[in-house]
Design brief:
alpha/beta
């Protein structure tokens, strides 16, 4: 039901030539994938492996795809279970159909559907490059976990057009839970 995998978070030429096992697993998995980079975040207390994970802030970016809807359901469930704050940014990129005000209204409706009334949910709408903004928000909001939806795409499609999820995987300051659609 869940794949847990570590990654080196390589970038540049080494990732281009060697590829990334974690990214390939995320791209092909039909179940959620939990990706952690070594010494990235104190998600669990290594001296007490029986302790519960420390989840205070969960960041779940939304782009109004069905994949991000699935991720939002998972993130809201985790936020309720751990009594964590759910931060839901929507990044409006150049050429997007929705403006900031419309995105905020749509995101509020999505949050109502996920019964987030039982957790502390916050909406953030910004414009800019999605992956960069998500990583910056994860740092600024001190996210303990980033939950993202992923649509299945081939390596070639990703190589030509880039992929927000994979870019966040490489640079996020916290573990990333990728939920497939």
């Amino acid at each position: 039901g869940l794949i847990v995998i570590g990654t080196h978070g390589r970038g540049g030429a080494s990732r281009l030539w060697l590829g990334s096992v974690a990214e390939n697993v995320v791209r092909q998995a039909e179940v959620p994938v939990f990706v952690v980079r070594q010494k990235q975040h104190d998600f669990i207390n290594p001296s007490d492996p029986q302790s519960a994970p420390g989840l205070t802030n969960i960041l779940c970016p939304v782009n109004f795809s069905e994949a991000s809807r699935s991720a939002l359901w998972q993130a809201a469930s985790l936020a309720r279970q751990f009594k964590a704050r759910l931060i839901t940014p929507c990044i409006i990129e150049p050429g997007d159909k929705l403006g900031i005000a419309e995105a905020r209204r749509e995101l509020a409706a999505w949050l109502d559907e996920t019964a987030t009334g039982e957790c502390d949910a916050h909406i953030i709408t910004k414009s800019g490059q999605a992956a960069e903004r998500i990583v910056t928000l994860a740092e600024k909001m001190q996210a303990d976990l980033v939950v993202m939806g992923a649509q299945r795409r081939s390596s070639l499609q990703t190589w030509f057009s880039g992929d927000t999820t994979e870019s966040v995987l490489r640079h996020a300051p916290a573990p990333v839970l990728v939920v497939p659609h």
